[in-house]
Design a protein that fits this description.
Blueprint lengths: L3 E5 L8 E9 L5 E10 L7 E8 L8 H15 L4 E7 L4 H7 L3 E12 L5 H9 L5 E7 L4 H10 L20 H13 L3 E9 L4 E10 L5 E10 L8 H16 L3 E9 L3 H9 L3 E12 L1
Helix pairs in contact: 3-6
Length: 293
Amino acid sequence: MSIRITALTDPDCGPSSHRLAWLAARPTGFPVGSAFLRLFTTTGQGHLAEIELNVHPAERRNGIGSQLLAAAVATARAEGRRCVTVQAAADSPGERFLPALGFHKVLTLTFARLTLTQADIAALTEIIRQPHPGYRLESWDGTVPSEFAETFAASRRAMDDMPMGDTDYGTVVWDVARVRAAAQAVEKRGELLHTVVAVNVSDGAIAGFTELVVPGDGKGDGQHYGTGVLPEHRGHALGRWMKAEAIRQAIEYHPDLDGLLTDTADSNRHMRAINDALGYLPTHRTLLYQLDL
């Protein structure tokens, strides 16, 4: 089968990355697949690229995916990247396809969902009311308030040692400008960003955070983003405390919301235990593959 691979212009360009795109089509112009290559540009992740690959199910096993992947990998190599990653659903054809092309599995992610009508409100309330000496909870919507901006940006290093298996993930360097840009990007999409933090009462600095993004109309499912506690403040159950409060606020402020989604690396046993205790139920698994260039 004759397939034409065409490079496209992708407008998805942000402060921390930009994307390139390719379209696979038959000579008639009928599209049969696509590939996107995200090139990270910030300090700590300039070595990394991420591929998203899609081929129409009826067109698979005809070499289309291989051609698209080759175009993306060649560009990543030309851009001086050290590695590229791509995700595949567990028990999908990708589990056979990617290793055959030299990719190796580096991480397994479990996706889970909490149905809000089935949330145990009494249990959540009990978790939130439990004393956490030396800490208090604060929260806000949208962009971080100025009084918390510096310590919130500093608290993002809580994610630096997040279990990532064998992924060559690097580190994400955060400052106030990046924190605000991330919140503005959520707002620009028409979604709502809710943040709950644990504050160290001795100095007023943020010790940990959890973020939740909700559709702009307050319906459907919300999506948990990062949850992290700084190493020097771990061991006080702050992660479970903050996440329980985020769930409570979602139920109170968005009564039409159906559920909350989260994804966690299987190697992150601590966060998986928190999700299990709060009532999240697994829905599916995704495998992350990496090719070292």
